[in-house]
Design goal:
CATH topology of the largest domain in chain A: MetI-like fold
CATH class of the largest domain in chain B: Alpha Beta
Oligomer: heterodimer
Number of strands of chain A: 0
CATH architecture of the largest domain in chain A: Orthogonal Bundle
Shape of chain A: globular
Number of helices of chain A: 13
Number of strands of chain B: 20
CATH superfamily of the largest domain in chain A: MetI-like
CATH topology of the largest domain in chain B: Rossmann fold
Number of domains of chain A: 2
CATH superfamily of the largest domain in chain B: P-loop containing nucleotide triphosphate hydrolases
Distance between the termini of chain B: 37 Å
Shape of chain B: elongated
Helix content of chain A: over 70%
Distance between the termini of chain A: 34 Å
Largest sheet of chain A: none
Chain lengths: 281, 357
């Protein structure tokens, strides 16, 4: 009896793992294909796109092209400035708004909360034309600041939503003890509540940073100029109307993955706690 | 060192009145316990004294200063919370020192004060640990240490022992009592546990539905409960409450079963008045005579040191009796019990207030 249960358990575990492995392969395949082919010469990319680069075929020509066009580092820098600044503002303002919504009773509290949640449902791209007009009249077109503003607006609703939920779970006694101890509301938020909701911050950081880094739309619309090009937009410059340097495109895309991977690894331990926090408690 | 005066304090949440005007002056160094069932407003009252809830009406005066519009930090109070409320990412030392640091107390002074508090509370070995590495009792001691180092005018305790297990609770109760005796700081202590209230308090404020039912020393509250509510709330097992009528001569009370209980003093003015009769389970004894009522024993709880008998009167009312020692009866027995002379509490049948003795 116990044996059959044990065996059944094994079989179901196996099945679950098969499904998960299958999904992982499916999700990773395109990325893997990009990385693999970035190390192959053009002929091989089209001749045998699924083959691994071998000793004879391996080449760094793509990376060579990309790095020789010196501006790629500049694009990298642009992307990094935009992503990090936007992330900083999202977490700063998101935390402040979330704290106000979760901590204070004031008229319109729920209404403001609802308004912010609506921001999650309505894609910001619908307002592109308006945003562009606004940025032009503010003289912000072709600046990184324009991108930072737009991405901050794009990320805030989700950040406020997630963080206010987490902050509601922080014990009232803790905040009140701090008030009696003489901490200001700002100190309570930044020194006490934020460290406690660190998993939420990691979750938000990962979920907002990836779309910002990968975005092509707003850089193309708001900051297509040479000096403000981001990495994703920069990679496009290897795609021509008639000739496309696939080696360079794939190499640029591979390079673009690296910083995200590093940031993800930094946040991931906290992230898992953030995702599972509600489930375990 | 200071007095805490609560003058006609009220609290409303919209149309709902949670605190309906409480008046009490806590003396310098006094230990006042706010006791009541959950939802009676005792925590709200404490939080109003702390400044964590706004005050709808009346005044809170700490050390002769009206503090209604002051922030908690400016009221010169320290508070201990039910779930400890320690800063989770700081060491025990920093937890105690942080409030002082915020107030700009010089560093050497902080170190002396924390060291002194740690010595009193026997926390010396744990100063570098995080709260998560401590047991419940140790955490609560750190919370008290955080209050002590501030050297405030008053301590406020909000059910500080509720999260501890029974054994630790008894131990911490004694520690709190010793600590308060030693420091002599005015304390307000909220609890729903009558044992804590009886053992810790200089005076108890019994609250129900936002009003003060009675203010008095623990023994006053036990011996002369001011209302049926207090009578039922203080004492375990609770007081028996029966219907009765004062007889025509005003010499005794007639119970529904016909038993005649003599009154401590004659009440000719109250002749034929229906009353509620309170008798504590420990004041009933097995005896015969005019005052005795027959009961059927339904359940016997042997607690070792004493025995609780659940009996039923002929008219169906239940009656609790607490006897010293091991049980002398079993379920199904017929007993005859009577209250000890002078152990009767009389309450008005309509509004439940105690009749004047």
């Amino acid at each position: 009896m116990t044996q059959t249960i044990a065996r059944r358990f094994q079989i179901s575990t196996l099945a679950a793992h098969l499904v998960l492995i299958g999904f992982t392969l499916l999700a990773l395949a395109p990325t893997l294909l990009v990385v693999m082919n970035s190390f192959k010469p053009r002929k091989e990319i089209f001749g045998a796109p699924l083959a691994l680069p071998s000793f004879e075929t391996i080449t760094l020509i793509g990376y060579d092209t990309v790095l020789k066009r010196g501006d790629i580092l500049h694009y990298f820098q642009n992307s990094l400035i935009v992503t990090v600044c936007a992330l900083f503002f999202i977490i700063l303002f998101g935390a402040m708004a979330a704290f106000a919504l979760s901590e204070y009773r004031f008229p319109g509290n729920r209404l403001i909360g609802l308004f912010l949640v609506m921001g999650i449902m309505v894609p910001i791209r619908l307002g592109t034309v308006g945003i562009l007009k606004m940025m032009v009249s503010l003289g912000l077109a072709n600046t990184l600041f324009a991108l930072i503003l737009v991405y901050t607006a794009q990320g805030l609703p989700m950040a406020v939503f997630v963080m206010s939920e987490f902050m509601r779970q922080v014990s009232d006694d803790l905040k009140n003890a701090a008030r009696v101890d003489g901490l200001s509301e700002y100190t309570i938020l930044f020194r006490l509540v934020l460290p406690v909701v660190r998993p939420a911050i990691a979750t938000i950081a990962v979920f907002t940073m990836v779309p910002i880094w990968n975005d092509l739309w707003f850089p193309l619309v708001l900051a297509p100029g040479e000096s403000t090009r981001t990495m994703t937009l920069g990679a496009q410059s290897f795609i021509g109307q008639f000739i496309t340097d696939w080696n360079a495109v794939l190499a640029a895309l591979t390079l673009a993955i690296v910083p995200m991977l590093i940031l993800y690894l930094m946040f991931s331990r906290q992230l898992i706690r953030g995702i599972t926090a509600g489930a375990v408690k | 060192m200071a007095t805490v005066e609560i003058k006609n304090v009220r609290k409303s949440y919209g149309p709902v009145e949670a605190i309906k005007g409480i008046d009490i002056a806590v003396q310098d160094g006094e230990f006042l316990v706010l006791l009541g069932p959950s939802g009676c407003g005792k925590s709200t009252l404490l939080r109003m004294v702390a400044g964590l809830e706004s005050i709808t009406g009346g005044q809170v005066v700490i050390g002769g200063r009206v503090v209604n519009d002051l922030d908690p930090k400016d009221r010169d109070i320290a508070m201990v919370f039910q779930n400890y409320a320690l800063y989770p990412h700081m060491s025990v030392f920093d937890n105690m020192a942080y409030g002082l640091k915020i107030r700009g107390v010089p560093k050497p002074e902080i170190e002396t004060r924390v060291a002194k508090a740690a010595e009193i509370l026997e926390l010396g070995r744990f100063l570098t640990r995080r709260p998560s590495q401590l047991s419940g009792g140790q955490r609560q001691r750190v919370a008290m240490g955080r209050a002590i180092v501030r050297e405030p005018a008053a301590f406020l305790f909000d059910e500080p022992l509720s999260n501890l297990d029974a054994k630790l609770r008894t131990q911490m109760r004694i520690e709190i009592k010793r600590l308060q005796d030693r420091l002599g700081i005015t304390s307000l202590y909220v609890t729903h546990d009558q044992v804590e209230a009886m053992t810790l308090a200089d005076r108890i404020l019994v609250m129900n539905h936002g009003v003060a039912e009675q203010i008095g020393t623990p023994l006053e509250v036990y011996q002369r409960p001011a209302s049926l509510f207090v009578a039922g709330f203080i004492g375990s097992p609770p007081m028996n409450v029966l219907d009765g009528v004062i007889d025509a001569s005003g010499q005794g009370v007639v119970m529904p079963g016909g038993a005649l209980l003599p009154l401590p003093r004659p009440r000719p003015d109250d002749a034929n008045r229906p009353v509620k009769l309170g008798i504590r389970p420990e004041h009933l004894t097995i005896s015969d005579g005019l005052a005795a009522s027959p009961i059927l024993v339904e359940l016997v709880e042997a607690l070792g040191a004493d025995t609780v008998v659940y009996g039923r009167l002929p008219d169906g009312e239940s009656l609790l009796i607490r006897m010293a020692g091991l049980p002398s009866c079993t379920e199904g027995d017929q007993l005859s019990v009577a209250p000890q002379p002078g152990a009767l509490h009389l309450f008005d049948a309509a509004h439940g207030r105690r009749l004047a003795d």
